[in-house]
Amino acid sequence: MRSRVPSDAQTLCEMAAHRSSKFKGWTPPPAIYHEMEQRLQYRSTHLELRKVLKNQWHALSASTTLVAAVGEKYQAQIEDFTAKIEALDTALETILKQDPAWAASITLLQTIVGVGPITAYWLVVASLNFTSCAKADSLAKYVGVAPVVKQSGPSLKGQGGIGPSGHPE
Question: Is the model's pTM score more than 0.70?
Answer without folding.
Answer: yes
